[in-house]
Amino acid sequence: MSTDKKPAIDHLSAQLGEFSDTLNDNEQTMLSAIFGLAEDQRLRLRSRLVGERLEDADDGDVQGFGAGGMSVSPSRGAVFESTQGFGNSSSRPIIVCGSGTAQVNRVWSLMERMGESGCLDRVQSAILYDINMDTRRRIANKSRDMRSSQGTRVFQPQYIPSDDGFHRNPHGYLQYAGRLLQEQESLVEEVSGHADRIGTAPQLIVHFIGFGSHSILGAKLHNKLTEEFPDCKSIVVLGIPRDPTLHDQMRAIWDEFVGLLPDQGFLITDDRIGDPASQDHKLACAIASIEASSQSGSGSGPTLPDVISSLSQDTNGKWMGVSSIKSFEIPMLTSWSMLPPFRKTRLVRGKGDEINMLPIKAIKAAMSDRWQIADHKSPDSGTRSMVVCTMPLKNDELPRLNAQVQELLRYDGFFEKNPRTTVALASAQFASNSMIRQTPNLPKRRNILFSMAIGFMAGLWTVGDLAFGWVFGKKPAPLYLHCSRIYTVPGAEDPTREIGTLSSILMVKSGESQGQNQDRLGNDTKENWADAVDSILREPDPA
Description:
By secondary structure, this protein is an alpha/beta fold. It is 47% helix and 15% strand. It has a domain at 23-327 and 359-377 and 431-437 and 484-505: Rossmann fold, CATH 3.40.50.1440. The N and C termini lie far apart (111 Å). It is built from 17 helices and 14 strands. The protein has helices spanning 2-21, 25-56, 59-63, 101-116, 133-144, 177-198, 215-228, 244-260, 276-295, 304-312, 357-366, 398-411, 414-417, 448-472, 495-498, 500-506, 514-537, and strands spanning 76-79, 94-99, 123-129, 152-155, 204-209, 233-240, 266-270, 319-324, 328-330, 332-336, 343-347, 385-391, 421-427, 479-488.
């Protein structure tokens, strides 16, 4: 029977191919959309049948998100919280999403920082939306390496019409629009179903969107998420590209992009300021630090949904910015003991517990516009903002340190100068900004025997390293202090003119190159300097 079916299917496929060749581009797009909708309907029916079977199963089979309950497939994974976390596993109010390869990398960096601070359990779901086979494979491999009894659900698109994406064309998805948009609805339904299963509705959606090939698709996905969770706050982390070729593209789709997100709040970042990898790391540390401050022993910091909600109510609340200082290395001292571990490390506090002055120095530095990760006007003293400082201290040490820092800032007049600024401390150990490197998109492909051998050797090395560390002590890694500030950006009434990062691109005519614009700005600067010097050296007029 199968031998009779196959020629019939091949004949039908050949006829459809000949018919498709007779159509123009628009008609081919419509045909592709119809086929996509039909395929999606088949998948939805199949998913519904699977869901009905799960409803008949035991609750343990449905709620098991660990290694024994939830299977990890190339399109679905599980990432889990730090074993030294401070959060409550039943509280999962945040959804993070990234559209495009660069933004997916940003989301993964944020999840790593959340895990390092013990707050990954606060992420309910992570949507890594990149129509790219290599990205999907890499994220699936990373997800498989992380296991625990509690986990954050990771969602990825299953339908990949083009293995290497849409080649930076924001409208390249149109010929596959039917199936792509239908799959977006399926992803949102799965995210909503996960929220229903754990019994906690999300409170905040953090969506990373750039201006590559996934800009319009990302905006459409964001609208579907906000429609599914109407009571949920949302913030779009807008990534301004460094590549000048994307600036023309940004100008071409800007009106369409903001038209899809008319009432949306944005957190602006600019890859042209500093090293992009270091800036992304600073941003991830800033967001993770806010959540860490709310779960630390100091109890002084609000949660990330609280901060976003508070800032959005300000006059300039539609646009937000972040400043993050260069990390401070905290001095350490190695000492030896007669009992294992023989090698121990401790912080050098100084004669007068001078380590308490490091957060003061960092907090004041974070108020400077030097460390902004986007070009915009400096916030004034009345701007609503939050400063959070993370230090690698034990959680029970934070209340005393926080009280001392708050008192010293109050004595110094900090809160009088900045009456709408909140300061919080948190316990976390993040890597230095200079130690961050980009992760390649293409994973190493190995056969199963070689992978098993590598895994066995890695297991032996881990056991040996733990035993050696317990007896002799681990080699101390540098400890760093991070400090960040999140605030509202002045000029929200007319952002394309008032915010420098946007105006430097959007106010340039399409026919004018970025280099020409920079030359024009440089010539103007030279002329201004010449006029200033001439006015200084000019002899005063006789009375």
